[in-house]
Design goal:
By secondary structure, this protein is mostly beta strands. The chain is about 0% helix and about 40% strand. The protein starts with about 40 loop residues before the first strand and ends with a strand.
């Protein structure tokens, strides 16, 4: 022997002996399935049929509220796209899983950015199971980076079906006696198993099965490679200015079903050269693949149109219509309800839209590339003096996170006085001006009662906590925006200032509260967003009514478990009372740009105490930023000087410790 070892692997006829994982085609079930197993499934386009009588079509993907989905078509197949944050699947045969310790979840998923985390890396997939108040959210696995191939893929998740503490029954398969909410299919919100935090995820099929019904998770590690393509360029903005006859790699199309003409018009004194659609559509193409190629990944795109708001065309609507959803040119369609309606102001105006997941293949633009096509409704066509298209790049592109059209807003009326900027609920004064206590029920039962110090008792509201019905912690408060006081829900994200007047109860010292969950528009999709925990206000126990300021810069007034409009839901860890709540929208544009009607609430709460070492410790609330500490020894002729001692942040307080002096010294915070 020469010392070498020969290893011989023999599989013979053993079907389960597989040396390498396969790439499973999307038009049939994976080759490793077990037809004899119990499986419940749904195929969006009904292309997949049961291989045996034990495979049944008993699943339904729900849609509505925060689990909204929409039909899409990609690469020759139909799918459902998650428009909210959750994919909730109802199983009419859910009781079949009552004795199964493990449930396998097979998903046919489209391989785009949505399968990964926000950092572009694989993420955990959590599946919410059980019914309120007993829930579990086990991790089912991670879809590998290789599945981001712009193709349909199969992937297998596996979750434990554990036992609930109250009666020992399994989370999936039964409904316990203490169940609350929409539990008809053994889960939350009308479903059975809910996939958590998956905005924009696209599925073609989903199946629940016994352990091993679809093979093993290790069978699903190989995926078809993506098409070969040049990387996305370091560009993100193309435009054409008809008025000045200049362009950046863009041209107006004129032919087929999208004829256009060049005319001159506009208000007296500001007439311009402009483009006008002759038919229903206006389309512009990008030349020289300036923004990339159709084989590049779809990206969110922003369209900005400068147009003449002709008084004679008031009521005419226009906006993005069709766009390419994939490199084959499969059309996607933008929500027609988000088209802009001319008001007839008689001025040149700009309006924008953000369209998620657009491919550069375009609609009827070959050999050029393009974003969405514009459609017009009503009699007459407005003049367009300029058209801009921006691509929202993602990491590692050097332009990631930039919006070159940030100054072009989706609703120009937010720059005017058309919408209210202030709403107030003052229970002590009996004022409900566009703001009121929300719906008290479910997991957010609230109690209205008097509170405060003996010399300043006020009507107020607090979370019920253990005073509410059993089954929920009741740690939330919600408030309704009434009469669309701050404008319609269709407006873009608002910069919202919040001022809460609360009782700083000595018995609740150390307890805290903050606005927590809200809805926000992210790249054209409304989804749930959460504030960081460090903005919470912690009670100091002064026994006085105090004010707390918060600011959320990307607020949609869609509400969370509260309609018809709401901002953020508050979360508490104590029975903290609010007597007053105020909202103010800070306009991003117009004559009042940057004006904050709650600026006075933004003042920090300051404490000054001698330190044990003889120094002076000055601290103020951490969530109020932009303030610096100064001191002087003379208030008659003050010479305020900045304190250079280091600032620390701990326990929701900013603190500066400065040495004491032999002369009197005065301190102030300056913004």
């Amino acid at each position: 022997m020469n010392g070498k070892t020969l290893t011989l692997i023999v599989c013979g006829a053993i079907a389960s002996c597989r040396l390498f994982a396969d790439v499973f085609p999307p038009d049939s079930w994976p080759a490793v399935i077990k037809p004899e197993a119990t499986v419940h499934f749904v195929s969006v386009d009904d292309a997949l049929q049961p291989p045996s009588d034990t495979w049944t079509k008993s699943l339904t993907v729900l849609s509505g509220g925060d689990q909204q989905t929409a039909k899409v078509a990609l690469s020759g197949r139909s799918g459902l796209k998650v428009l909210g944050s959750y994919l909730n699947t109802a199983d009419s045969g859910f009781r079949s899983w009552a004795d199964e310790a493990t449930i396998d979840i097979l998903v046919q998923v489209y391989g785009d950015d949505a399968i990964l985390g926000g950092n572009g890396k694989p993420r955990n997939y959590n599946f919410l199971i059980g019914v309120l108040p007993e829930l579990a959210a086990p991790v089912g696995g991670q879809i590998p980076l290789a599945a981001k191939n712009q193709k349909w893929n199969w992937y297998l998740f596996r979750i434990p079906n554990g036992a609930r503490p109250s009666d020992g029954s399994r989370f999936v398969g039964s409904i316990p006696a203490n169940a609350q909410g929409g539990t008809q299919f053994g889960g939350v919100n009308g479903g059975t198993i809910r996939t958590e935090g998956v905005p924009n995820l696209i599925i073609g099929a989903i199946a629940f099965g016994q352990a091993g019904a679809f093979g093993e998770p290790g069978d699903y590690t190989e995926f078809a490679p993506p098409d070969v393509c040049d990387p996305e360029p370091e560009t993100n903005h193309a435009w054409i200015d008809f008025a000045h006859e200049t362009t950046e790699h863009m041209e107006l199309l004129n032919g087929g079903d999208q004829p256009t003409e060049i005319v001159t018009g506009g208000p007296a004194g500001d007439e311009r050269r402009a483009a006008r659609a002759v038919g229903l559509y206006m389309n512009v193409g990008v030349t020289d693949h300036y923004l990339g190629q159709s084989c590049n990944d779809p990206r969110a795109m922003k369209v900005c149109v400068e147009f003449f708001d002709d008084p004679a065309l008031a009521g005419v609507r226009f906006g993005p219509e069709a766009f390419a959803a994939d490199s084959a040119g499969t059309p996607g369609f933008y929500d027609p309800l988000r088209r802009y309606t001319l008001t007839g102001s008689g001025a040149w105006m700009s309006v924008s839209w953000v369209i998620p997941s657009v491919n550069l293949f375009g609609i009827n633009v070959v050999p050029l590339t393009a974003g969405p096509r514009i459609v017009f409704e009503g009699a007459g066509r407005p003049l367009v003096s300029r058209f801009d298209l921006a691509v929202f790049r993602v990491s590692p592109n050097t332009l990631a996170g930039q919006d070159p059209l940030a100054g072009c807003v989706e609703d120009p009326l937010i720059c005017t006085d058309a919408y209210g900027k202030f709403a107030e609920m003052d229970l002590a004064a009996g004022v409900l001006d566009g703001l009121a206590p929300g719906s008290s029920g479910g997991d957010q039962v609230m109690i209205q009662e008097e509170s405060g110090p003996d010399n300043d008792r006020r009507p107020s509201i607090r979370p019920a906590m253990d005073d509410g019905p059993k089954g929920f912690a009741h740690i939330y408060m919600n408030f309704a925006i009434t009469n669309t006081k701050l404008g319609p829900s269709t407006q873009p994200n608002a910069q919202l200032a919040i001022c809460a007047t609360y009782f700083d109860d000595p018995d609740l010292k150390g307890k805290s509260f903050r606005p927590e969950v809200y809805q926000s528009d992210r790249n054209g999709v409304s989804t749930l967003a959460f504030t960081p925990g460090n903005i919470a206000v912690r009670l100091e126990g002064t026994g006085r009514w105090k004010e707390a300021y918060f600011q959320i810069n990307d607020m949609k007034f869609l509400g969370v478990n509260q309609g018809p409009q709401a901002a953020a839901r508050f979360v508490f860890d104590g029975k903290i009372h609010f007597s007053r709540l105020r909202y103010a929208v800070i306009p991003p544009c117009g004559d009042n740009a940057g004006v904050n009607l709650l600026q006075e609430c933004k003042q920090p709460h300051v404490t000054l105490v001698p330190d044990a070492s003889g120094s002076v410790k000055v601290s103020w609330t951490a969530q109020v930023e932009g303030w610096s500490l100064e001191s002087t020894t003379d208030l008659v002729n003050p010479d305020w000087q900045p304190i250079d001692d280091p600032e620390t942040v701990a326990d929701d307080r900013r603190t500066v410790v400065t040495p004491s002096t032999t002369v009197a010294r005065f301190y102030r915070l300056r913004n």
